[in-house]
């Protein structure tokens, strides 16, 4: 068994004295772990940082084995943001969330594309909005996408201001007003595009966090990663 | 082939860093051959270390006295506090001989994968120490990794109200490093941290 793929490093565990087990989000093979011989060596430690884009070659005798990775760095996203606490928190949160939410060895090319887009977007000022879109893309690709196209109650496609926590569907301002204390606020940038304000980002993170927890993490009896909590704290 | 005592010695030695079963067997053979010169003094030294070594209640270093020799040294600069991940980091800093302040050992790094949160690290005691009027600067010497710098930013945030200058080690080209042999991340970090010549 052997394949080559583009990947993003999600997490790394030490294995023995010199090796490491790397969990990568690959373009065509999903979240996939493998042993990196010499993964703790000085030359490999810089490559095995969460968020780094790599070219991965995986080899194993049988497909069900852990297998071995040979990695070549494509883009050192991790090193680019070491001095920027908010961007570093976003990078750490995105990788930890993908590691926690995605099933192993099931292709999720959309999630790979969304994470890659986020890592490049971290250079831009609008990265918080892209981060919220990344979490919603993760939800959508896992089969729990929110329907933000039309009001669940009236069918209206304009003036959407709320999201129902029960259905994950948008609700128009007028229809949702009597229930506003039970609904999530729908930030305008998720419907109209563009960049969200600080309050919009917080609302977006609250929305995506709720549905990620309920649909993806609760069934696995786990919670949102601490790294995400630190990101929310930093943006709050 | 060998008795249970020697087999146990080999097993224990093979658990040390840098030693596998084969090298542990060689080390055990050498110890047994040089019983008077090596095995007995080593056994005594290990028993003595096991009885006397403790963790410094101030900084987290290992020493036979508490507070440790570094914390108790009056010639050390009390204004400088260097935060390191573990005792290996502290010893690495001491090896350079270029830092004359004191230390705080965190005992790990924030890690989502390993479930290590702020409450698992020595951050509370660090913040309490940083409130001391004598301390004017805290140097964050955590590793230049995503986890290391995430921890450093968190610690810096926690130290914000302590009235101390918080600084961090520079990241970049190592001494003797040639650009074409460096990884992209190091060059990127060095470029971002460039200084006026």
From TrEMBL, chain A:
UniProt GO BP: DNA recombination; double-strand break repair
Pfam family, one: RecO_N
Keyword terms: DNA damage, DNA recombination, DNA repair
Entry-linked InterPro entries: ARFGAP/RecO (IPR037278), DNA_rep/recomb_RecO_N (IPR022572), NA-bd_OB-fold (IPR012340), RecO (IPR003717), RecO_C (IPR042242)
Keyword Metal-binding (UniProt): no
Gene3D superfamilies xref list: Nucleic acid-binding proteins, Recombination protein O, C-terminal domain
Keyword Transferase: no
Protein's job: Involved in DNA repair and RecF pathway recombination.
Family per record: Belongs to the RecO family.
The protein's name in its UniProt record: DNA repair protein RecO
Organism: Paramagnetospirillum caucaseum
From TrEMBL, chain B:
Function statement: May play a role in DNA repair. It seems to be involved in an RecBC-independent recombinational process of DNA repair. It may act with RecF and RecO.
Protein name, per record: Recombination protein RecR
Keyword annotations: DNA damage, DNA recombination, DNA repair, Metal-binding, Zinc, Zinc-finger
GO biological process, one term: DNA recombination
Family: Belongs to the RecR family.
SMART domains listed in its UniProt record: TOPRIM
Keyword Heme belongs to the record: no
NCBIfam families membership: recR
InterPro entries for the chain: DNA_Rcmb_RecR (IPR000093), Rcmb_RecR (IPR023627), Rcmb_RecR_Znf (IPR015967), TOPRIM_dom (IPR006171), TOPRIM_RecR (IPR034137)
MF terms (GO), sorted A to Z: DNA binding; zinc ion binding
UniProt domain Toprim: residue ranges: 79-174
Source species: Paramagnetospirillum caucaseum
Classification via PROSITE patterns: RECR, TOPRIM
C4-type zinc finger segments: 56-71
Ribosomal protein recorded as keyword: no
